[in-house]
Amino acid sequence: MNADALVLGVTQPGAVSSSKDKSFPEVAADARKRMDNKYAQMKAGEKPYSANVEDKNALMGDLDRRSLNAVATNEGGKFSNDEQVAAKALMQQQARLASGHYSGPEDQKKNWKDPFADDPVGRAKAALNFLDNMSPEEKAKPEWLSQHQTLQDALNQYGKGDTASTDKKKDGHFNNLAEILAGVDTSGTGSKNPESAKITDAPAAMMAKIKAMLPATQ
Fold first, then answer.
1. Beta carbons of 60 and 90 less than 8 angstroms apart
2. Is 134 helix (H, G, I), strand (E, B) or coil?
3. Rounded Cα distance, 68 and 167, in Å
4. For the CA atoms of 10, 15, 20, 24, what is the dihedral angle to 10 degrees?
5. Contact 91/199 with Cβ under 8 angstroms?
6. Which of 135, 1, 134, 12 lies closest to 62 in space, CA to CA?
7. Nearest 5 degrees, angle CA 127-CA 94-CA 63?
8. Sign of the C-alpha dihedral computed for residues 143, 144, 145 and 147 taken in this order
9. How far apart are CA 143 and CA 141, in angstroms?
């Protein structure tokens, strides 16, 4: 059981493998079949599925981002609440990694190098690129358009040499904006656990923070 599709989803969120040439209902049916097969393999082995991180990665490791989205949104009512939460967490993990934030086992964090540590605008551009390459179903969501427009407006303002935008770059505005869009807790309050119950409410919470940060662009 590998996690190649999950890894590819970080750099190429629009890459298709499990969902290729399928309608969204077919994507959901295929994801259900793949996961059921994984459950059966684990049960037949020495260690049945136990819902730990490794098992979740194995369970959904061959699902491309579009398939993960079918699980996360419970397309066709085929997936349990735990499966939906796990899929949402994996999708957020992909977004965090794509924008330079480490997300994974704590003992591996020391090996991670943030490519945007000194480049908050680059981080924001990476977040925008990630949004641009999401699956068609994700792009159809209202929150996708809001997030995309917010990032694009901020980058456009900076590109025009707007004084306020320049100040925002200096005070970490772009850095924080990309973090919010990637589902990272920047407030110092609340859980950073990607599997917390807050995942369900994350889009609304993110947009509330973004609107507070960007009154001039809304």
1. yes
2. coil
3. 38
4. 60
5. no
6. 1
7. 130
8. positive
9. 5
**DSSP per residue, 27-61:** HHHHHHHHHHHHHHHHHHSSS----SHHHHHHHHT
Tokens of 200: 């369900």
DSSP 63: -
Dist CA 92 CA 98 (whole Å):
10
Phi, then psi, of 177 in degrees rounded to 5:
-60, -45
Task: Please give the pLDDT value at position 186.
Answer: 56
Q: What is the pLDDT of residues 125-182, one digit of tens each?
A: 898 999 999 999 999 998 898 888 888 888 887 776 654 555 555 556 666 666 666 6
Which residue, 197, 4, 5, 2, is CA-closest to 82? Answer: 197
Question: pTM of this prediction?
Answer: 0.79
Check residue 119 and give its pLDDT: 85
Give dist(CA 19, CA 154) in Å, integer. 33
Q: Residue 38 CB: number of other CB atoms within 10 A?
A: 19
Query: Would you say 14 and 137 are in contact if contact means Cβ atoms under 8 Å apart?
Result: no
The residue ranges of the chain whose pLDDT is under 50 are 163, 189-200, 210, 213-218
Helix (H, G, I), strand (E, B) or coil at 138: helix
The 3-state DSSP class for residue 157 equals helix
Go through the chain and tell me how many residues it has: 218
Q: How far apart are CA 183 and CA 205, in angstroms?
A: 9
